[in-house]
Every structure is written in structure tokens, then in C-alpha cells.
């Protein structure tokens, strides 16, 4: 029997019906009128045979009475637009329209009957026949729509065109998603239930489907049999524990979906097209950073803002966030032509009223940078231009020094010369106890801007505040592990991880940029701001979760291969070294690191020597000088380890 039924489902018999968008209005009206004709005939026969004490009717034919009833019914159908809806999407509103259309007609005819009886002492219809007609007609019209809906849902669902889903959550946002699934014309998901960890909500019915309690037993025995995916409501996404609440679904091969947050719903519910797979960025295992924007708004409004590295993932997000504070001008500096062109097109389209200037240039070119500073005279500089990839910088240390050290030195010196109010430098947790060239170059850049500020402050010439922000890996940034894993998963694997025990701190791009802006607003000068990034994440666990989020099973559908630590890479990153302590700020998630202080005269000589070696393209001399400036720089898994022997 199942084989026969499957053959029918897979045949072309229903293909046209399923693919048909909707019946024409005249066809729906025609079918409705046929049902009304049947209903009136049935009502007339029933009332004639069952009721004998009804007074005589006026002498007109049955056909004339039928024409009157159906003619008026057409008018009521037109008033309530009962035929304009798509039958397979019929809902409570359509049922209400039918009720008013049918019984509005019945009520009017009974009123006419009463007036006619008062005038002529005769009736045009049996009143009981009209009531019976109303009941039968409404029943048939309602059953037609319900039947079409059930049949369509059944065949499309069994034809794998619709995904049965449960909604995780039972509050306002979850109900909104459920209503959208029921009323939307893009029928892609079928609601089969709700699931919640609130015991008071379970075992109840919402919108005709059951609410199940979230536990491993229920998911394994009931949920996996009824649903193929779980839609997590936006309110639930704010309160879940991603390490446990969603793993219970992923471990049972249930796809996890979500909708846009309620903050952007405005007055409209989201659409089916806006439902998307949960991204790893959504599962950051700590609450998102919250920042007061009042101080930022006061400082940046009507100012000229320069952003170096503006076309990068961090720089471009800083641009987008700064726009809402209404600066007079935003100067975008980058040496990458195509990314800069794309950013410019995006900003011109989305923010046509904001004043932008794109400036192609390299922070290593002192003359070009000086020309730019003289041209725009910025009030604030957000310095995000840097080389950041550890293996590349390990192979090219002289370039790391040229961009990360010399480029920062040029921009910092020009900031002082042109009396910039605030210079905010973007650094990294790899600058702490560095084991690679990239981290050491960023630490040297930190040392330079801090010692420069201390020198100027001691001489009462500190017109520019120099502030450093230090944070960990950024989810989704250009070249980071997340896009790389996504690419490998899309190709079917394998996913490559350097070491099974490697861990990293993570934050989202918007969080990183909010930290940069907040640092610029709260800093007094000379500080290094660090962020409480919660617990570090094992990269292999990140890879497994991403594989499951993509709908695959780790090690079964997609393999994970360990390739070994790369040059300069260490198993874990630090936000502070052992000599550094922190001080609290008004934001409990943001702290100030107290770091070792350097005398500008001494460190400036060493840095100039370092830059000279980089111009000579002497890799080992360059790295040796870096180790002299930063004694804690001990290379790992690198050719430069031999330089540490004599330390």
C-alpha cells in the first residue's frame, strides 16, 4: 500500500496542482456558487418535508427563489471578497469573511420576509429554510477551503517541498513567527509544534499544535520524528546557552534556524525568506557587549574622522558605526583598490547623505600621508591598517615592520604634527608574550604610541590622546578561520585544524568596532584597553559545531584533519602578560591594562634601527632587533627560534 501511495505522490498527477500558484477568482466564485445552489436545494427539501405548519408562500417558482438567494449571495461575496484569497492559505480571517457573507445574506432575506409578511400577510421564503441554507452553505464553503489546504499541505509535504518545523520558544516573538508560517504565501515550512524549557508552557496547545518540554528524551523520541528543523525565536536567541540548548538539536541532526531580531521587525513580522540558518557568530558563548553611545556621539558629531585600513573588515565596520554619529566628513584610507571601490559603492547607495572621501594611499608612504593630513586635517584617527596573518608575516618580517611599525609611527607622528584630538590604534591579543613576528610588530607599535604620549605629556605638549585597543580573533573577518571553515564545508571537507588543543578568544566584528569607538571616547591618553572576552573556544569544537550547523555529521559526512601548528602559532592567546595588571572602567566588560613603560628616547632609537633593517630586507637582523625591543618575544615553531638561544 505504501509503495502504491508513494508512486502516486511521485507521479505527474498532482504536479500541475502543486505547481499552480492559485486558482483564478472567477473559478473560486463559480465553485462557491455551485455549493450555494446545492445548499439552497437541500435546505428547501429538508424544510418542506420536516415542517408542516409553515404558512403558504407567495406563488413564485422555486427557480425564482433560487435566483434571488444566489443573486444576493454574489453581492455579499463581493462585499467581503471571499473569493479573492488563495484557497490553500485560508485561515481564520477567511472563515470569518465566509460567515459574514453567508449569514449576512440570510439575515437580509429574513428581514425582507418579515417586511413582506407585514405588508401582504405572506412569505417569500420559509425562514427555517433560509437558516438551514446558511448552515449548509457555510459548512460546505468552509470544508472546501479546509480540504484544499489539507490536500495541498499533504502532497507538498510528502513531496519534500515543505519542511516540518518546531519553534523553540513560546513568547511573543515565537508566536509572531508561527503566525507568519501559517499566513505566508511562500509555503516552505510547516509548523508541527513548539518546544520550550519552561515547564509551565509545556503540554499545552498554541495555535492548534502542542508545546513540548525541552529535554534529551523528548527530542530523541518525539521531536526528531515530527520535525526536521527548529526555528529559534529571536528572544530565545538572547537567553540561550549555546553550549547546551542548541547542541541538543544539532546532536540529533535537526537543522537550527532563526529569524531577524525583534528590534528590526518594526511594525511588520518577518517573512519566510528572512528565516536563515543559525550562524556560528550567533553562538558566541557569552553575552554581547553593551556600550553607552552618549560620549561617542558627543565627541564624533560634526568632526572629521580618518580611518586607516578602511576597506578591511574592521575598518569598514568602524565606518558603518561612525556614520550614525553624524560626523562632518569621513576619510577612508586604504591601499587596496578593489575593496575600497566596493566599499565606496556600498556607502554611496546606503548613506547618500553622508559626506565621504576615499583616499588611496599606503601608510608606509610618509609624503602621501602628510599630503592627506594637510588636505583633510582630521580630528580623530582610527588606525586599523595592518598586516595581520601570522604565517605570512613569519615569512615576511620586514613587511610586517614596514606596515605595522613604520606605518603606525608615521601616522602617530603626523597626528601630533597636525594636532589630532585622538589617535586610536587597533591592536591584538597576539601582542601579549608574542611568539610570532606579527604579534611582536603590533607590540612594538603599542610601545611607540604609548612612549610618544608619555614624552609629550611630560613636556606639556600632549595635544593628541593616544589610545590602544587590544582584542582577540574576530569572527568572520577577512581571512579568519570562520570563512575558511565555511569554504571547506561547502566543498564537502575535509576541515583542517592545526592542533586538537588549540584555543582562541573570539568576538564579533561589531563588538570589536564598538570597543574601538568606546576606547576613543573614554580614554584619557596612553591606555591599552582590553575586553573581557569570556571563556576561550577550542577551534576543533568550533569546527564541529559549524559542520553540524551546516546539516552534516562531523567525522562521518565531513572529516576533520589536524595539520600541525603553523610557524609562529601558539596553542593559546593571552590578553595580558604576567607583569600586567588591569583597572576597571565604567563598563564592566572593558578594562585598562597597566603595562611596562618605555622611555621614548631609548625606544625610538631602537625602532629606527629596526626600520632601517627592514629597508635592507634583512629578515634575521630585523627579527633579532624585534626581540631586543620586546624581550618576551620568543619564537615558536619558527626558523627564528635560533635567535632565542642566546637570550
Describe the model.
By secondary structure, the chain is α/β, with parallel strands linked by helices. The protein folds into three domains: 2-157, no CATH class; 162-278, 3-Layer(aba) Sandwich (Rossmann fold); 294-475 and 506-532 and 574-640, 3-Layer(aba) Sandwich (Rossmann fold). The protein is 47% helix and 15% strand. The chain is built from 22 helices and 22 strands. Strands 10-9-8-11-12-13-18-22-21 form a nine-stranded mixed sheet, with helices on both faces. A seven-stranded mixed sheet has the order 3-4-2-1-5-6-7. A two-stranded parallel sheet has the order 14-17. The longest helix has 32 residues, at 127-158. The chain is elongated, with a radius of gyration of 35 Å. The protein starts with a helix and ends in an 18-residue tail after the last helix. 38% of the residues are buried.
Task: Give the class from helix and strand content and strand pairing.
Answer: alpha/beta
- Summed up, the domain count is 3
> What average pLDDT do the residues reach?
80
Distance between the termini: 81 Å
CATH class of the largest domain: Alpha Beta
Q: How many DSSP E strands?
A: 22
Q: Please tally the helical runs, counting DSSP H or I stretches of 4 or more residues.
A: 22
CATH architecture designation of the largest domain: 3-Layer(aba) Sandwich
Amino acid at each position: 500500500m505504501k509503495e502504491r501511495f508513494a508512486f502516486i505522490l511521485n507521479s505527474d498527477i498532482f504536479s500541475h496542482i502543486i505547481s499552480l500558484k492559485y486558482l483564478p477568482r472567477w473559478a473560486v466564485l463559480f465553485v462557491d456558487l455551485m455549493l450555494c445552489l446545492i445548499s439552497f436545494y437541500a435546505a428547501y427539501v429538508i424544510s418542506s418535508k420536516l415542517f408542516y405548519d409553515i404558512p403558504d408562500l407567495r406563488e413564485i417558482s422555486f427557480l425564482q427563489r433560487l435566483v434571488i438567494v444566489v443573486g444576493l449571495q454574489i453581492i455579499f461575496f463581493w462585499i467581503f471578497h471571499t473569493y479573492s484569497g488563495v484557497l490553500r492559505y485560508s485561515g481564520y480571517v477567511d472563515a470569518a469573511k465566509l460567515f459574514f457573507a453567508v449569514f449576512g445574506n440570510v439575515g437580509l432575506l429574513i428581514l425582507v420576509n418579515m417586511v413582506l409578511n407585514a405588508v401582504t400577510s405572506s412569505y417569500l421564503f420559509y425562514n427555517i429554510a433560509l437558516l438551514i441554507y446558511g448552515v449548509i452553505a457555510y459548512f460546505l464553503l468552509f470544508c472546501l477551503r479546509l480540504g484544499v489546504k489539507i490536500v495541498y499541505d499533504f502532497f507538498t509535504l510528502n513531496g519534500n517541498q515543505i519542511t516540518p518545523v518546531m519553534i523553540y520558544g513560546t513568547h511573543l516573538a515565537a508566536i509572531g513567527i508561527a503566525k507568519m508560517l501559517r499566513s505566508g504565501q511562500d509555503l516552505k515550512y510547516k509548523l508541527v509544534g513548539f518546544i520550550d524549557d519552561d515547564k509551565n508552557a509545556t503540554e499545552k496547545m498554541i495555535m492548534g499544535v502542542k508545546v513540548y518540554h525541552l529535554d534529551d528524551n523528548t527530542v530523541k523520541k518525539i521531536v526528531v520524528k515530527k520535525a526536521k528543523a527548529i526555528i529559534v525565536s529571536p528572544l530565545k536567541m538572547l537567553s540561550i546557552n549555546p553550549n547546551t540548548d542548541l547542541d541538543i538539536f544539532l546532536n540529533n541532526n535537526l537543522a537550527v534556524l532563526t529569524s531577524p531580531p525583534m528590534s528590526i521587525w518594526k511594525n511588520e513580522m518577518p517573512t519566510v525568506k528572512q528565516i536563515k540558518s543559525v550562524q556560528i557568530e550567533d553562538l558566541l558563548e557569552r553575552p554581547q557587549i553593551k556600550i553607552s553611545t552618549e560620549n561617542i556621539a558627543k565627541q564624533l558629531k560634526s568632526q572629521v574622522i580618518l580611518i586607516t585600513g578602511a576597506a578591511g573588515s574592521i575598518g569598514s565596520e568602524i565606518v558603518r558605526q561612525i556614520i550614525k554619529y553624524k560626523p562632518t566628513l569621513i576619510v577612508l584610507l586604504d591601499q587596496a583598490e578593489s575593496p575600497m571601490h566596493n566599499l565606496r559603492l556600498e556607502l554611496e547607495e546606503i548613506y547618500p547623505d553622508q559626506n565621504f572621501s576615499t583616499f588611496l594611499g599606503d601608510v608606509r608612504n610618509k609624503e602621501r600621508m602628510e599630503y592627506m593630513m594637510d588636505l583633510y586635517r582630521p580630528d580623530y584617527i582610527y588606525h586599523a591598517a595592518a598586516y595581520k596573518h601570522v604565517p605570512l608575516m613569519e615569512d615576511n618580517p620586514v613587511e610586517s615592520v614596514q606596515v605595522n611599525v613604520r606605518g603606525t609611527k608615521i601616522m602617530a607622528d603626523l597626528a601630533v604634527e597636525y594636532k589630532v584630538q585622538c589617535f586610536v590604534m587597533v591592536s591584538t591579543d597576539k601582542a601579549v608574550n608574542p611568539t610570532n613576528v606579527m604579534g611582536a610588530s603590533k607590540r612594538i607599535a603599542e610601545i611607540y604610541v604609548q612612549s610618544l604620549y608619555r614624552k609629550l605629556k611630560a613636556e606639556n605638549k600632549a595635544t593628541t590622546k593616544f589610545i590602544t585597543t587590544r582584542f582577540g580573533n574576530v569572527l568572520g573577518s577577512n581571512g579568519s578561520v570562520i570563512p575558511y571553515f565555511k569554504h571547506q564545508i561547502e566543498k564537502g571537507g575535509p576541515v583542517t585544524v592545526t592542533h586538537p588543543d588549540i584555543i582562541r578568544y573570539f568576538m564579533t566584528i561589531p563588538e570589536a568596532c564598538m570597543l574601538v569607538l568606546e576606547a576613543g571616547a573614554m580614554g584619557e591618553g596612553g591606555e591599552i584597553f582590553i575586553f573581557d572576552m569570556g571563556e576561550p573556544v577550542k577551534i576543533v569544537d568550533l569546527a564541529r559545531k559549524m559542520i553540524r550547523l551546516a546539516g552534516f555529521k562531523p567525522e562521518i559526512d565531513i572529516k576533520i584533519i589536524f595539520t600541525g601548528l603553523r610557524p609562529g602559532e601558539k596553542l593559546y592567546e593571552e590578553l595580558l602578560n604576567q607583569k600586567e595588571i588591569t583597572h576597571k572602567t565604567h563598563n564592566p566588560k572593558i578594562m585598562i591594562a597597566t603595562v611596562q613603560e618605555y622611555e621614548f628616547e631609548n625606544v625610538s632609537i631602537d625602532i629606527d634601527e629596526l626600520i632601517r633593517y627592514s629597508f635592507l630586507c634583512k629578515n634575521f637582523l630585523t627579527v633579532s632587533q624585534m626581540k631586543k625591543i620586546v624581550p618576551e618575544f620568543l619564537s615558536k615553531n619558527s626558523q627564528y627560534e635560533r635567535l632565542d638561544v642566546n637570550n
